[in-house]
Structures are given as C-alpha cells and as structure tokens.
Specification:
- By secondary structure, the chain is an alpha+beta fold.
- The chain has two domains: about 25-40 and about 165-350, C8orf32 fold (Roll); about 55-160, Immunoglobulins (Immunoglobulin-like).
- It has helices spanning about 175-185, 190-200, 210-225, 235-245, 245-260, 285-295; strands spanning about 5-10, 15-20, 55-65, 70-80, 85-95, 100, 105-110, 115-120, 125-140, 145-150, 155-160, 170-175, 265-270, 275-280, 300-305, 310-315, 330, 340, 345-350.
- A hairpin with a 5-residue loop joins strand 1 and strand 2.
Length: about 350
C-alpha cells in the first residue's frame, strides 16, 4: 500500500482534519542563545552602630513546587513599613528543626518601598513538613547601620513536598494548524512590543543576555493580568499588555518579547495549557547565570533536542524562569535539572519565527 504523506480524517460533520503536517521551523542559523551576564551582588553595609534603630516590615512569601531531591525555591516580598531603611542580605529556613541559611548579599529596602528576594534550599522527603522562615537584615539611619542578624518570623507553618509523578505524551513539531495561528498573531515588528522590551531590558546593556531574558520573564509574571477565556479566543501579544490574557497570550507574549530582544523561543501546547520555552544553547552552562540573576540556586526544567536546550518559561506556574510548567511533574530525583514529564496526551512544539 502506498504510504501517504498526509492522512485525512473525515469527521462525521463532513469537515476534514489534517493530521501530522509540519511546517518548516527553525534552522541552525535561526538559533540565538543569550550571552552570559553576571549580576553583581550588593555587599551588606558595615555595621557601625552599637545601638539598634527601630524597624517594622511586612513579609510575605511563596514556594515553588517542592520535590524530594531538588532545590526548593522561595520568593519573598518585604515591605518596609518603618521610618528607617532596611538592608536585607539573606534568609534562613528551619525544616523539621534542620536549618539552611544563605547570607551572601542583598539589597536595600527604602522606607515605604517593597522588594522581592529569592532563596533556595534542599527539599526533604515527600510528605508534610514543619518550617520557619527567617530574614538576615540591617537597619540604617543616615550613614549608621545596626545589624540584627537572622530573625525568624513568628509561628511554625507547614508545606508539602510532592511525590514523584508520571506522564507520557506524543510530541508534534510545528503542526501546521497551531504554527500558522501563532506565527500569524506574533508580530515581532510591533512598535508597542518593541518599546516595552526596550523599557524592560535597557539597563542590562546592548546585546541579548541572560539578565534581559530573566527581566522579561519577571515583568510578565508581575504585570500581566490572567484573564480566563471561556471561549478560547486567542489574542495578539500586544493585546495582552493592555488587557491581559490566558495561557496562550502569556506564552506568545513571552516568545515575542524574547524574539524582539534578540533570542529564540517556542510555544508549547498541551491538552489544556500553553507555555513558552527559550533556547539557551548546546549545553546548559548558562543556568549558572540565571542563578546569578536571582541570587539563588534553583532547579530547572529543560527540553533537549537535536538543536540544544530549551528553558521552560511559564509565568503562570513559576515565579522564576525555568520552573516546572503547569502540568509538569518531576518523575525521579536528579538534582540541578528536573527529570520531568508533563501530563498531556499530545505536546505541540511551535517555533516562533522572527518577522
């Protein structure tokens, strides 16, 4: 029997569905990995006051997905509600009485200001655990600083470390239906997108680099409103900047902004979700620069294919670039990079081309 290049399945309604048709996506000449960028740590001030200064602050925090054998990630927001300035230079966490600390640099929080910080630790075994979170900080008045050291937030709380999951899927590359739709909506020459990318990344130099990549991700995470679209209408990335969007808009916006900044990105589609992934090169050495941006030691979710490594970028699932996407599950312990899968029947990888 002659093998057909295209298999047509005729629906009961009379429509025709074309399966497994691929468009031409990236070639080697299209791949651009970010340049390494080292974000300098700010050393804590010299403690030159024998007398403490008053302080008050509000603190909130959020954990990433926690899996045994990986790095647990915490995003901490501190609002300085006192009249004196703060300098936060590290964090500690006690898990079932075992303490992990990190105090190698931080940043100042002015009176009335809010700042975000990141911290990581070794996850314990699967199950529920008790923990306390602590902050290393100093209080300053004029040129004088008093070091309070590590102070723990009152109260013992609990978190859950997840058990390993499973999942299997069939991968499709540049399936024509989604390829045409996504590349039709993403306009990398759009003036609104270009202006916003420049605004987000201009402090990090001229070339496309890891700091620009992380800054784009953080801006989307912090500024784009999630809007649940029950009718599943896909809008353009520039529409999402003003009006928000759901997972498709988030994924296309991430891919569009990275492409405008000079990089290479894809959109991945599952049975019920969409997220972006960003090309980082033939090896994963740039992850140390991603760690440097956050001043933390994270675990990362990567795709690997014949072109190299693609770093997951899903702001709807993670507060740092490289966290597991919605539906992603760790399947066994592996340390720095997740050994992971995603719960879906089909996974579509769509190359987002530069106009």
């Amino acid at each position: 029997m002659r093998r057909l290049a295209i298999v047509a399945l005729i629906c009961l309604t009379g429509c025709i569905f074309i399966e497994d048709v691929e468009r031409k996506g990236f070639g080697e000449e299209d791949l651009v990995a970010p340049q390494p960028y080292n974000v300098l740590l700010i050393k804590k001030p010299v403690a030159n006051s024998l007398f403490p200064f008053s302080y008050s602050y509000n603190i909130s925090w959020q954990f990433s997905d926690l899996y045994e054998g990986y790095r647990g990630a915490v995003m901490v927001e501190i609002e300085n509600t006192g009249k004196n300035k703060l300098f936060v230079y590290g964090f500690g966490i006690k898990i079932d009485g075992k303490e992990y600390v990190k105090d190698d640099g931080g940043k100042e929080v002015a009176s009335g200001a809010k700042e975000k910080f990141y911290f990581s630790f070794d996850c314990p075994s699967a199950g529920q655990h008790e923990y306390q979170l602590g902050v290393f900080f100093m209080v300053g008045k004029g040129s004088r600083w008093y070091d309070y050291g590590l102070k723990y937030v009152e109260g013992v709380r609990t978190f859950d470390v997840k058990e390993f999951g499973g999942g299997g899927y069939k991968l499709y590359r540049n399936y024509y239906k989604y390829f045409d739709k996504i590349n039709g909506l993403v306009d990398t020459n759009n003036a609104i997108l270009k202006e916003k990318v420049n605004e987000i990344t201009q402090r990090y130099g001229g070339s496309y680099n890891t700091a620009k990549l992380c800054a784009i991700f953080s801006w989307i995470y912090e500024n784009i409103e999630y809007v649940n679209d029950t009718e599943d209408v896909w809008n353009s990335p520039q529409y999402a900047i003003e009006y928000g969007g759901d997972c498709e808009e988030f994924a296309m916006l991430m891919a569009a902004m990275v492409t405008i900044a000079g990089g290479t990105a894809r959109v991945y589609l599952t049975d019920n979700h969409a997220f972006a992934a960003v090309y980082i090169g033939k090896d994963a050495s740039l992850l140390k620069n991603i760690d440097g941006y956050y001043n933390a030691n994270f675990s990362y979710a990567l795709f690997k294919d014949e072109m190299g490594y693609w770093l997951v970028a899903d702001p709807l699932a993670s507060f740092y670039i490289g966290g597991l996407p919605v539906g992603g599950v760790a399947i066994k312990a592996n340390g720095k990079n997740y050994e992971w899968s995603i719960v879906t029947n089909k996974l579509y990888a769509i190359d987002v081309l530069k106009d």
